[in-house]
Amino acid sequence: MGAQDDTITWRVPILHILSRTDAIEKLSQRHVFTDVISINDVGIDPPPGVTSIPHHLCLHFDDVYTDEDAEMGFTLPQSNQIEQIIDFAHHLMGLQVMIHCFKGNSRSTAAALIVLSLHLQDERMAALLVRQIRPTAHPNRRMISLADTLLGRNGKLLGAAQILWNQQVEFARSEWIIPNLA
User: Most buried one in 93, 94, 113, 125, CB count within 10 A?
Assistant: First the structure.
C-alpha cells in the first residue's frame, strides 16, 4: 500500500482589486487575467478588453446603499446581481482574478470579500486579505448585506466587513484629524 497523501490543496484566487483607470492600464499592458468581474455605473461600458477575457461578468449599478439613493434616481445593487457574483465565484476558471469598479474601493472590495469568503470559508480572513490587497477598502454595505443573507452567513459577512469599515474611520481620523467623539 502506498503512503496516503494528507496534503490539502488551497485554490484561493489571486485577486487584483482595481479602479477603472487601473483596470484599463492593466488590460492595455496585456496583463493575463483568467477571470474578471467588472462593476460599472449604469450607462457606462466596461473597460476595453474586459469582454475579450473568456470568463467575465459585467454588472451595472451605482455605488449606493439606501432606498433614499434609489428615490434620487440611483440604481441599487440587487439580489440577482449578488447571486451572479456568487455563481461566478463558484466557477472561477483560474487564479488570476481582476475585480474593478470606478474607484476600486467599495463595489469591487465588496465583490472581493464575497469571492474570498466563499473560497476560504472564513469571513474574517477574507476581510483581512481584502485589506491587504486594497488598504482603502470600504465594501458597499448593500452588497455585503445581500450576500450575507443569500449565503446564510447570519451576520458573519457583515461582521467581517465591519473590520474594513472601522479601518476607514480610523484612517480618516488619523489623516484629517477628526476628533474621536466617543
Answer: 113
